[in-house]
């Protein structure tokens, strides 16, 4: 399992509150679990699969460098099908950014 932890130091005001009350102020936390991060325990890529176990493919365009009949180097756009990496981290990142946008400006100030 992959984990990410984001922490922020207390402000001076929060430190004073802890000193006075003996406990930190109330705060919200964001938690998410990413079951799939794009690779297995050995570092091999893991792809999205259908219920039958076949890899899900998407069409994409890639620039390919090749030579024409005269031997000149040219670049052409070629449509290819590629497997989709099974990675939930981009979705978790988006959820965190949405959560963060709803919080007070205190979060992640520099």
Would you mind describing this structure in some detail?
- This protein is of the alpha+beta class.
- It has a domain at 1-46 and 86-110.
- Helices cover 21% and strands 20% of the residues.
- The chain contains two helices and two strands, in the order αββα.
- It has a two-stranded antiparallel ribbon with strand order 1-2.
Topology:
Elements: H1 12-21, E1 57-67, E2 73-83, H2 89-101
Antiparallel strand pairs: 1-2
Over all CA atoms, what is the radius of gyration? 24 Å
What fraction of the residues are assigned to beta strands by DSSP? 15-25%
The secondary-structure element order is HEEH
In the predicted model, the low-confidence regions spanning at least 5 consecutive residues are none
Largest sheet: 2 strands, antiparallel
Q: Which structural class fits the helix and strand makeup?
A: alpha+beta
How do the strands of the widest beta sheet line up side by side?
1-2
Count up the helices. Answer: 2
Average pLDDT number? 87
N- to C-terminal distance: 30 Å
* Estimated helix fraction: 10-25%
How many β-strands, per DSSP?
Answer: 2
| Coarse shape | elongated
What can be said about this structure in brief?
By secondary structure, this protein is an alpha+beta fold.
Features:
110 residues; alpha+beta; 2 strands
